[in-house]
């Protein structure tokens, strides 16, 4: 414990690291304050009542990513998700479209153009989502009190909502970029992280209320948090798990200098796709859930709707299979074994016992598939676990939102990445890091 305290004290002995941390904390405070500025024309009480009735849906997931801003009907209601969506779209286009593939290979200039396109895409997605949300809000009436969420609807409200929501998201994007450039950690990931962690105090209070109300025993309460600890450790292993493929570089003589002759490795992550498979699977399952609600009196559709209920084993099975599928799909999109093999051959690298070129690509692809399978299964188990806890441990809604597979993976990944960046600053100044061997490995940009 004393050693850990000494390491945190060392952080503030490095002026640059101290400045970066304080700057990051200042930006986080601005973000949290902005998350309480109300958007005009919306009744936050009625909207909050509706969202509480939609527990476990895609809406509550979106509200979690926005730090509860959607439930409070603030200018930050869309959160940073439009930027994440634009980034994913650009990443997929980079894997399929030659123009964006060339940009990815152009170094700093190409990255600058991709960043600019991502910003443009964010504005477009924000405007479309804000317009859709404005229409949805105007037609929304709470089930309990029958209060309209928008007391005065019309074109003026739609325009005002589009402007305020889009401006709020662009401001959040700017805050995230400032953290990345002048603070510590990945700014966008940290903003999502803060939004999720903000739910934790409420979640703990709700659990305590269930115990005091007699809805849950003290033993179940303790077992729940012990299980959370074990699962969090599993999420850490899932995030950091790597399969290393050894690579040898042949010696080359260029002029009077000799290059190569080094040994390194290719790190293949167990969970290359991060939380993307869970988000894709939840979004896809949300479609039949929504469509089936339009046929409340049809017995066939009512039966099908029960299959897609969050407490249904059918839902858990389909959800798990979709996560496994998207884990393989997204890994295939972001990791190209053929390109990797070509680059290795170009610079004289080879895997011992494997021929360069096509054989190397086939070998890497085979190993990647074997590594991805247990990672995808672990990801599916982590995503389904909250539903099991609700069914058998009477887990509260807020704790489920916090402890869900998506939220937990983001918390673990961003925390490890931020610690890794702090540790690199400490090690560079000859201070001891948070681990003696400096083995913390983060997940940059997977939030």
What does this structure look like?
The chain has 18 helices and 5 strands. With 447 residues, the protein is mainly alpha-helical. The protein folds into 2 domains: 35-183, no CATH class; 217-393, Preprotein translocase SecY subunit (Orthogonal Bundle). The strands form 2 sheets. Strands 4-1-5 form a 3-stranded antiparallel β-sheet. A two-stranded antiparallel sheet has the order 2-3. The longest helix has 36 residues, at 358-393. The radius of gyration is 24 Å and the shape is globular.
What integer is the average pLDDT? 79
Radius of gyration, taken over Cα atoms and rounded to an integer in Å: 24 Å
* CATH evolutionary superfamily of the largest domain: SecY subunit domain
Strand order of the largest sheet: 4-1-5
CATH architecture of the largest domain: Orthogonal Bundle
Shape: globular
Taking the sheet with the most strands, its summary is:
3 strands, antiparallel
Number of strands: 5
- Helix and strand content put the structural class at mainly alpha
Count of spatially separate domains: 2
Which structural traits does this protein have?
disordered C terminus, Preprotein translocase SecY subunit, 2 domains, 3-stranded antiparallel β-sheet, 447 residues
Set out the fold topology:
Blueprint: H1 2-11, H2 15-34, H3 44-53, H4 58-65, H5 81-96, H6 98-104, H7 108-138, H8 155-182, H9 187-197, H10 200-212, H11 218-240, E1 242-249, E2 252-254, E3 257-259, E4 263-269, H12 276-292, H13 299-307, H14 313-334, H15 337-346, E5 349-350, H16 358-393, H17 397-403, H18 405-428
Helix pairs in contact: 2-8, 2-9, 5-6, 5-7, 6-7, 7-8, 8-9, 9-18, 10-17, 11-16, 11-18, 12-14, 14-16, 15-16, 16-17
């Amino acid at each position: 414990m004393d050693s850990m305290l000494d390491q945190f004290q060392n952080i503030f002995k490095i002026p640059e690291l101290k400045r970066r941390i304080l700057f990051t904390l200042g930006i986080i405070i601005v973000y949290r304050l902005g998350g309480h500025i109300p958007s005009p024309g919306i009744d936050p009480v009625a909207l909050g009542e509706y969202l509480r009735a939609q527990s476990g849906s895609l809406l509550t997931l979106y509200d979690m990513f926005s730090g509860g801003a959607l439930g409070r009907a603030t200018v930050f209601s869309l959160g940073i998700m439009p930027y994440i969506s634009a980034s994913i779209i650009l990443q997929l286009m980079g894997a399929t479209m030659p123009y964006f593939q060339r940009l990815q290979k152009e170094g700093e200039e190409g990255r600058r153009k991709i960043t600019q396109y991502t910003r443009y895409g964010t504005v477009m997605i924000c405007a479309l989502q804000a317009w859709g949300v404005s229409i949805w809000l105007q037609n929304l009436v709470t089930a309990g009190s029958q209060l309209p969420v928008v007391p005065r609807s019309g074109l003026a409200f739609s325009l005002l909502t589009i402007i305020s929501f889009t401006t709020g998201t662009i401001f959040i994007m700017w805050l995230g970029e400032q953290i990345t450039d002048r603070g510590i950690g990945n700014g966008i990931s940290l903003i999502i992280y803060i939004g999720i962690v903000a739910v934790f105090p409420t979640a703990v209070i709700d659990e305590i209320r269930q115990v005091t109300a007699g809805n849950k025993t003290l033993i179940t309460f303790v077992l729940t948090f012990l299980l959370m600890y074990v699962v969090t450790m599993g999420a850490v292993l899932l995030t950091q798990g790597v399969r290393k493929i050894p690579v040898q570089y042949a010696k080359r003589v260029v002029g009077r200098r000799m290059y190569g002759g080094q040994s390194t490795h290719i790190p293949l992550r167990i969970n290359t796709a991060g939380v993307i498979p869970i988000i894709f699977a939840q979004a896809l399952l949300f479609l039949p859930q929504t469509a089936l609600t339009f046929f409340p009196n049809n017995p066939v559709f009512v039966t099908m709707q029960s299959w897609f209920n969050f407490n249904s084993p059918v839902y858990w099975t389909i959800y798990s299979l979709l996560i496994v599928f998207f884990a393989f799909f997204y890994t295939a999109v972001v990791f190209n074994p053929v390109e990797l093999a070509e680059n290795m051959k170009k610079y004289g690298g080879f895997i011992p016992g494997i021929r360069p070129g096509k054989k190397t690509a086939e070998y890497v692809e085979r190993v990647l598939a074997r590594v991805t399978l247990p990672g995808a299964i672990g990801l599916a188990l982590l995503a389904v676990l909250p539903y099991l806890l609700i069914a058998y441990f009477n887990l509260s809604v807020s704790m489920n939102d916090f402890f869900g597979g998506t939220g937990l993976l983001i918390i673990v990944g961003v925390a490890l990445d931020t610690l890794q960046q702090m540790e690199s600053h400490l090690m560079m100044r000859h201070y001891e890091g948070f681990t003696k061997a400096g083995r913390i490995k983060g997940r940059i940009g997977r939030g």
